Amino acid sequence: MIIDLNNLTIEQNILFDRIFNSTKREYLKLIDDIYLKSDKSIYFILSSATSRDIYLNNTLIKLTQISFIKHCLQKNNLRKIIIYDKHIKKIVSSLIRVSEGDTKLLCKYNYFDIFLDIIKGLISFLNNFKTIYLFYKSKSSKRLNSISNVKDIILINTMFIPSMFKNNNYNDRYYPKLFELAKNKDKIYFYPMSLLEIKLTKSLRICQKDSKNFIYCFDLLKLFDYFHALFSSFCLFKYKINNIYFNEIDVSKIINYEIMKNIFNQTLFQPMLNYLFVMRLREKNIDVKLFIDWFENQQLSRGFNISKSKYFPHSKSIGYQGWIVSDNFYYFHKPSKFELMIGSIPDKIAVIGKGLVQSFSKYSDISVITAPAFRYHHLYDNKIEEFKGKSILISLPISVRVANYLLKFCASSFLLEYFENVVVNYHPALNIKLLKNTAQFAFTDKKFNEIIKKSGIVISNLSGVGMESLALGVPVIVINGGSSINQNPIPMNIERKIWDECDNQRDFKKIFQKLYIEKNRNEQIKIAEVVREDYFEPVNEVSVNRFLDSSN
User: Fold this and answer.
1) pTM of this structure
2) What is the C-alpha to C-alpha distance for residues 340 and 368, in angstroms, rounded to an integer?
3) Is-contact 45 68, C-beta < 8 A?
4) CB–CB of 530/493 below 8 Å?
5) C-alpha to C-alpha distance for 395 and 442, rounded to whole angstroms
6) Taking residues 320-336, what's their average pLDDT?
7) CB within 8 A of 549, min separation 6: which ones?
8) If you average pLDDT over residues 159-171, what whole number do you get?
9) Which of 180-194, 243-257, 439-453, 526-540 has the lowest mean pLDDT?
10) Average pLDDT over every residue of 247-257
11) CB distance 371 to 535 below 8 Å
12) End-to-end CA distance of the chain
């Protein structure tokens, strides 16, 4: 038997995913240990060392790989193990020696990657300088004076991304309809974190003519704040934590590498700006009654919420989660006891459906409420019966690796027999240029809610469009693969007469036959009505203002 961590078999993927799940709680204990051995400074807390965000800190993946290899060495006669991370090489070598087998270890680590990491770090540093320049240039005393001493406002954290600015108009991607349906519009202010770079100046002009109220961090931040944030990563040089054990294995080197990685990747810059922004709000006597955070429990949110806890201790706060993703992979979206302790979790978490409430008690006791499903407000614009399309929609997620796997899987399947009916849509942040040569299907960049009207089935993986499709009565096939971790976003309690999952071509064809060719439309409509009711709160005047009144 051979283990190649980048090319696990279907059976190995299932085992890896099971070990990943069983490793999570042990990892929470390890984070507690790391924190207790630090000086508990804001710089350390905002670093990735204590973050569970898998995109920022892949320590849990490394620990799962170690546990997976240890399990396989005990249960199987392994001929070869292929790894790609030099930081686990010594540990795996030790496990092989203990097993007393003849297993060969091959570490395919490209040392050129070290050079690339350094270059990426320098680019990040320079990009942060660029951000300082753009932000400082955009500072406006006039805007600042207009918001000084405002009272009892609701501050809503959001994002500025390029797709929100088209045809010289601002289109809110995160909270559509909120402002239009709110009663006390003069009390509602949006705080956008900008991902626009050089397009910022033009976007500010567009927002100036919009009816919404905005508070920009660069209007409050001082020049010193930017350099404080820029060089805060270098404070991590002093940390070296020893005697960190995971399942009786010393993983201190893995943790210390994660700490040092922040220095080169400049990961503290934006979280620190968030932290300092809220501090400056307090200095300017801007009275915030309610903070609403777009809460993905990442370091950006951590900086925002810790600062709120410190400088606005009597103000209420809500962490809004306006999406549905895999509970398994995105387990870090659920707050932990440690995160509650450091003040990085809002008073309440708002989810977009009553069917999502129960899962939040998995790692801590947190107050959970339901809130309007702003990004899915269009679901209630049409009756479920109206969706009778015939197109076969392949919806690609944001991950290039998973999207590539999904495309190749479909391109080598029976779908070629339905070639003319297949349409490929993709996440707006996915670099589709890297994938268009993977399959000869037709690609479209139209909005999902336009394409779905003509679709008879959706094929996807980790994308949240799966649940959106079900709520419209369009069946879904989830293709597992492209990742060792199951990222299916569809809750298991939804009947499989409208959806199913598979990891091989034979089952794929059977499920397609069941859900698309021989589908029972009446049953699918009934299930869709339940999905809509349980997972997507309507967006109307009553639900919106109830949400905004949560501070009372």
Assistant:
1) 0.91
2) 14
3) no
4) no
5) 12
6) 94
7) none
8) 89
9) 439-453
10) 92
11) no
12) 61
296, 86 Cβ separation under 8 angstroms: no
**Structure confidence at residue 114 (pLDDT):** 73
Closest to 530 measured CA to CA, from 483, 458, 467, 471: 471
CB 311 within 8 A of CB 281: yes
3-state SS, residue 349: strand
d(C-alpha 412, C-alpha 429), whole Å: 25
Contact between 266 and 276 (Cβ < 8 Å):
no
From the number of C-beta atoms within 10 Å of its C-beta (0-12, 13-18, 19+), residue 419 rates as exposed
Query: Phi and psi dihedrals of 194, rounded to 5?
Result: -90, 130
The total number of residues shown for the chain amounts to 552
Structure tokens that stand for 304 in this block = 């925002």
Judge contact between 332 and 295, C-beta under 8 A. no
Cα 370 to chain center, whole Å?
A: 20
| AA identity, residue 467 | M
Handedness of CA 232, 265, 190, 137 (dihedral sign): positive
Tokens (6 digits) for 257: 């590498």
Q: In 104-197, which ranges are continuous DSSP H helix?
A: 112-138, 141-147, 178-181
Tokens of 551: 């501070």
From the CB of residue 393, how many other CB atoms can be counted at a distance below 10 Å?
A: 25
User: Is there a contact between 413 and 508 (Cβ–Cβ < 8 Å)?
Assistant: yes
What are 483's two structure tokens? 């990742």
Query: Running DSSP on this structure, what letter comes out for residue 354?
Result: G
Contacting residues for 459 by C-beta, under 8 A, at least 6 apart = 392, 393, 394, 395, 406, 410, 476, 477, 479
Residue range 496-502: average pLDDT?
Answer: 95
Alpha helices in 148-268 (DSSP H): 178-181, 200-208, 217-220, 223-231, 252-265
With contact defined as beta carbons under 8 Å apart, do 63 and 253 qualify? no
Residue position matching structure tokens 């501050």: 155
CB 344 within 8 A of CB 50: no
Separation CA 349–CA 365 (nearest Å): 11
d(CA 264, CA 233): 8
- What is d(CA 42, CA 37) in angstroms, rounded to the nearest whole number? 14
Tokens of 205: 């002009």
Q: Mean pLDDT, to the nearest integer, of 94-105?
A: 88
What does the pLDDT average to over 348-353?
96
What is the 3 state secondary structure string of 150-168?
CCCEEEEEEEECHHHEECC
Please report, rounded to a whole number, the percentage of residues in the chain having pLDDT higher than 70: 99
